[in-house]
Amino acid sequence: MQTSDPSHTQHPGHNQQLSNNQDPATEVAFSSAASAESDESLNIETLNDLASLADYSLLNTLDADPDAKTDGANHSPRQVLSGHYVLVTPMQIENPEYVTHSKTFFRELGFADNLAQSADFKRLFSGDLSNLPHPMRKIGWSTGYALSIYGNEYTQQCPFKTGNGYGDGRAASVLEAVIKGQRWEMQLKGSGRTPYSRGADGRAVLRSSVREFLAQEHMHALGVPTSRSLSLYASKTETVKRPWYSEGSRQKDPDIMVSDAVAISTRVAPSFIRVGQLELFGRRARGNEHPKAMAELEKIVLHLIEREYAYVIDQQLTRDDKVVLLARAFRSRLTSLIANWIRVGYCQGNFNSDNCAAGGFTLDYGPYGFCELFDPRFQPWTGGGEHYSFLNQPVAAEKNFGSFCTALKPLLASNPEALQQLNDIDDGFALEMQTEMEKMWAAKLGLSTFDPVLFRELFTLMIQTSVDYTIFFRELSEIPDNIDPLKRSFYSNSNSNSKELDERWSAWLTKWKTLINGDSSSQSNEELSRQMKRVNPKYILREWFVVPAYKNAAVGNYDLIRELQDIMTQPYAEQPEEVEEKFNKLKPSQFFNAGGTSHYSCSS
Ligand SMILES: Nc1ncnc2c1ncn2[C@@H]1O[C@H](COP(=O)(O)OP(=O)(O)OP(=O)(O)O)[C@@H](O)[C@H]1O
Ligand SMILES: [Mg+2]
Description:
Blueprint (H helix, E strand, L loop, with lengths): L32 H5 L9 H5 L34 E3 L7 E6 L1 H7 L9 H7 L14 E3 L4 E3 L2 E3 L16 E9 L2 E8 L14 E2 H16 L6 E17 L11 E14 L5 H12 L6 H16 L10 H26 L1 E2 L21 E2 L22 H16 L7 H12 L1 H16 L7 H14 L3 H8 L21 H22 L5 H9 L9 H12 L4 H10 L8 H7 L21
Antiparallel strand pairs: 1-3, 2-9, 4-5, 6-7, 7-10, 8-10, 9-10, 11-12
Helix pairs in contact: 5-16, 5-17, 6-7, 6-9, 8-9, 8-10, 8-11, 9-11, 12-14, 16-17
The protein binds adenosine-5'-triphosphate and magnesium ion.
The site of magnesium ion (MG) has 3 residues, from loops.
């Protein structure tokens, strides 16, 4: 279920603390770096081993909803007026079956691979917490959040029209654990109704769970900060109905209802705090909605710092200085994230503030897609509109950043100097975003500095020739002698004015080669090519690869999912010829405009 928008619409590696006048711009976005450097000997083979790492100390600093039932039976829609989370007992899917797990992430965490198929691990991550060993908790938690669409505050999506019934409608966190020195939160998606389900079923179907699971792993392998995939289990018997496309449909909207198996995927991150979550508390503090509103805002903000920015914000600073630094650090992560999205051709599709992680990583792989035929307005979600389209994501991010700053403001109301700093940081978003984008385009082109004229010409040619975004940049990374190899990426070879276009491409290539040669006098073309191939992936998760994987999964065959996991977790590598022939290809014509493959209206 997407929001019905009327307009349609700490990480490991962060180990340097910032004082108030340092710029976090150089901090490295989180990756697997820290886990690699810490305790390699950790070997988690049983749920008891995992239980020994459970540590809810940060969750315990937050407030639970005082009106919730303490046994976790909070499955009916209601307004949640205060507190940071609601205790929720997940609803296990019926007859769960192992589909897959992330081998890469298991290795990083020190989990033995066979743990994923063990009975008690499966029970926990398919939604049954009833039998967990101490000190694991037998109740999960879900959070409320607010919604802004492209910077505009909404409350209409909440059944009570107040915003108090909006939040995790089908997600519940089940574990906070410190593993190899890194604190992780583990969250089930599709684990049943919560007070925020708004009359919906709280479930996720296998199709959307497979899509999210694969994309999350792929993005990590692409070097793009993201929540991580842990495990995926599907029900052998329980189904729900969703609108979808009939075979061969070219309609914009789904034309049939389909019964899909339900599934639970588990994703993992240092926190799942969203911009929308800060907004919920920011709005309550701004409106003085209850006596604890300001204190709740302060707590969630300090909690966010602790969870996501502890390594970059000095604990000794005053609260207001921390808030200002938080905004600066988030701006830096968010601009870098968006440049990374565009580098790899990713379009989030539904980049509302509730789908924007305050830790600065990718969250919610709903109606996402990877750009194939280059189109600045590429947008796979039929509800997403131009505002969330591929190359408008920097502006959409700026809107989310504005919502983030607005949420922090009540804390700085009596500190005009800090407020001014916050406003300046907000105003500076566009410039920092532009700098990140230029750095990214230069890197894709193997240049040390951005050349606006060369880029503009390329941009026009890419559109006029209809190039495949991924194949084009990868072929360019081979530093070809002439334009023939680049033509592998052209969708419109039979263009009537192709001779003229060829000449323009040749002229462009000559110009580019002059620039790279001037730029890298000390670097050989082989070295430059290797460097470009680390920026320009060869393999990208095209939707028409994913469709057969989830279709086969629906009949119990998970081989294609696992094959895609193998291939898409090495997106920059040269892979065997058979892989290349199958997966390094232009989108076949039959998939253009195909409902459910080229576009989708509902992804859940
Ligand atoms: N089947 C469902 N039952 C209950 N709530 C749902 C369902 N589908 C979506 N929602 C809720 O609707 C809101 C908007 O959905 P959206 O597609 O952005 O998120 P999502 O994909 O469910 O979750 P997330 O953002 O947690 O990855 C979310 O708060 C989500 O929890
Ligand atoms: Mg969402």
